[in-house]
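Researcher: Next entry in the queue.
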Amino acid sequence: MPDKSKKIRLDKWLWAARFYKTRSLAKQAIEGGKVHFDGARCKVSKEVVVGSELAIRQGYDVKTVFVEQLSDQRRGFDVAKELYRETDDSIAKRAMNSEQRRQQNAGMVHTERRPNKRDRRLIHGFKDAMRQDQE
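Model: Structure for this entry, 135 residues:
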């Protein structure tokens, strides 16, 4: 059960809240600057306190969450989502960015197979012709 009086390291809390699959991945994200604690970069051993704001970059998205509870044990998703509260602005921004990415990829043509040797030669020839036209 979550306890408010414990001192929890940031990497352990991120792992327990199921943002990262392992503590080492959480550590790499923190050291890589993908996690900001109250608006600033922090160290792996930073102590998490209830009410802190975290900005967590995962892939293309940035989640802004507030720490609601502390836990150092990894539990199921239903228990883990009670450890934090994502802001409404963060949810809306992620949805908007997702929609923009979906619309950008709408015009892409996906083939059912990889290009073979002949296809690659045609692609390279086309690209070379385009470069020569631009010069």
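Model: DSSP finds five helices and seven strands in the chain.
Researcher: Noted, moving on.
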